[in-house]
Automatic annotation (TrEMBL):
Residues 20-39 are annotated as: Disordered. Transmembrane segments: none annotated. It comes from Punica granatum. InterPro entries: DEAD/DEAH_box_helicase_dom, DEAD/DEAH_RhlB, DEAD_box_RNA_helicases, Helicase_ATP-bd, Helicase_C-like, P-loop_NTPase. Residues 320-477 form the Helicase C-terminal domain. The keyword Hydrolase applies. Residues 109-291 form the Helicase ATP-binding domain. Residues 25-35 have a biased composition (Polar residues). It is an enzyme of class 3 (hydrolase). Its EC number is 3.6.4.13. This is RNA helicase.
């Protein structure tokens, strides 16, 4: 097996002092921030150099770093999970094809099974979903009618995906189903039939709920949903949720008020946690996590998968459609995603056609390919969005024109090519768009990420290269 990278496991005590610059995770109402006097003591800080050094140590609050068994000697997921996860789940896991652990699974699972709160910070496509689901299956009691695990996701699309994996793992062989109640997983997502869910939650609360913040809050406010039996709380794409003006205040309330961090195990996951030391500090001070929360930071010196080949092409801004066309003609991708920035409010008000629709029309009329060209964007209704994703998954060969709605968490492992028709607005957005490819954990296959830019945008892309530590090669066609 290829040599394995190690996680930087940092406890609260290993946090550096937060910078004074504004944090992504600052509350909307600054008055609710705790006094600065609760900042960590200087002796607790680690230098940024040591933060980047891959280490296998956990600093204990009162002493020098101690060795921590992160399960590096375990060769299979079964070995790591035996004694924690029920055997029928392990069998399903293997049937689905999860046998060898990814780095994040190898490093996080032992800590999670020991009951620690964790911030799972690992590359896109590294297997964070299975990591937290295995913890959940180790904790819940399927014989109890109570919501014991809650996974909060930013979009309906990601919610459907996570629910599907949870249900795959929960499925029991027929003979076992007769003996014991099987584990139900409820998807409580925006655009769903909340009335039906309300009756279900009242009659027989399921052990696992996957929810978007909006739908969850509606249920909590109607007092249909109680979190008093909650044992595991997961927030997936946590940096995105904190950065979303629509979701942040409800999320903060959920983390702080609805269930106490002392009674639950909390897992916050993302491939990108900007200002992560500040975030860790906020988590503890606001009591979103327990004070001994672990920061499991896999491969901090390589934020993006090494299987990605980054390229760019410079063109005049009026020539982007033609440039993209020549690119895809030359690449002939079997499955690719073309990312377009969301239309601005100003452009909408001016009555302009959405750039996604224009591009779709252009490609459908000028690019002859065997696969369909599909669309996924916020302005579509939930049913059309679901239909697009279903079609992509069933076909395996596709070209998808999408906004950043498709950039977070969506797992389409067959995608080999990403095109940035518009340059993403931030390095974090670049990382997540790029991360929609290269999603087969043990594959060496190279996938490409190509940005179409104007000469003025070259310096922005260079900035992303520096921030995310990758090199971009110029293409000439
Ligand atoms: N142990 C494993 N063996 C084989 N495949 C795996 C394993 N763990 C996860 N995968 C597969 O890897 C892919 C990526 O996993 P997952 O969606 O959990 O990534 P992620 O870390 O959540 O990524 P992102 O940050 O982009 O959301 C999925 O197709 C999943 O089925």
């Amino acid at each position: 097996m290829a040599s394995l990278t190690r996680a930087a496991l940092l406890t609260s005590s290993a946090m550096a002092k937060p910078s004074l610059s504004s944090s992504l995770f600052q509350p909307q109402n600054p008055t609710s921030m705790l006094p600065t006097s609760v900042a960590p003591r200087p002796s607790q800080f680690l230098s940024s150099a040591s933060l980047c050094r891959p280490l296998r140590a956990v600093a204990s609050p009162s002493s020098a770093p101690i060795e921590h068994d992160v399960g590096e000697d375990a060769h299979s997921l079964r070995q790591i999970c035996t004694g924690h996860v029920p055997d029928h789940v392990l069998r399903r896991m293997e049937e689905v094809g999860y046998v060898v652990p990814t780095d994040v699974q190898r490093q996080a699972l032992p800590a999670l099974f020991s009951g620690r709160d964790c911030i799972l910070h690992a590359q896109t496509g590294s297997g964070k979903t299975l990591t937290y689901l295995l913890l959940i299956f180790s904790v819940i009691n399927t014989q109890r009618s109570a919501v014991q695990a809650l996974i909060i996701v930013p979009t309906r699309e990601l919610g459907i995906q996570v629910t599907k994996v949870a249900r795959l793992l929960a499925a029991k062989p027929m003979e076992e189903e007769m003996e014991q109640k099987s584990c139900t997983v409820m998807a409580l997502l925006d655009g769903g039939m909340l009335r039906r869910h309300k009756s279900w939650l009242k009659a027989e609360p399921p052990p696992i709920v996957v929810a978007t913040v909006g739908s969850l809050c509606q249920m909590l406010e109607k007092l249909v949903f109680k979190l008093e039996s909650l044992q595991v709380l997961v927030v997936d794409e946590v940096d995105f949720m904190f950065n979303s003006s629509k979701q942040v205040s409800s999320l903060r309330k959920l983390l702080t008020f609805y269930s106490s961090s002392n009674n639950r195990q909390t897992i916050l996951a993302s491939a990108s946690i900007p200002q992560h030391r500040r975030f860790l500090h906020d988590c503890i001070q606001q009591k979103w996590t327990k004070s001994d929360v672990l920061h499991i930071y896999v491969n901090p010196v390589e934020p993006m998968p090494s299987s990605l080949n980054h390229r760019f092409m410079i063109c005049h801004k009026n020539k982007r459609h033609e440039t993209l066309l020549s690119l895809i003609k030359s690449d002939a991708p079997e499955s690719g995603i073309i990312f377009v920035n969301e239309q601005s409010e100003k452009s909408k008000k001016a009555g302009n056609a959405p750039p996604t629709a224009l591009l779709l029309e252009f490609l459908r009329s000028s690019y002859q390919c065997s696969s369909d060209i599909l669309l996924l964007e916020e302005d579509m209704n939930f049913n059309s969005r679901a239909a697009s994703l279903l079609e992509l998954r069933q076909k395996g060969a596709y070209l998808l024109v999408a906004t950043d709605l498709a950039a977070r968490g969506i797992d389409l492992p067959e995608t080999t090519h990403i095109y940035n028709f518009d340059l993403p607005r931030t390095a974090v957005d670049y990382l997540h768009r790029a991360g929609r490819t290269g999603r087969k954990p043990f594959s060496d296959k190279k996938c490409s990420v190509t940005s179409i830019i104007t000469s003025e945008e070259r310096f922005v892309l260079k900035k992303y290269e520096n921030e995310l530590m990758f090199d971009c090669e110029e293409l000439f066609l």
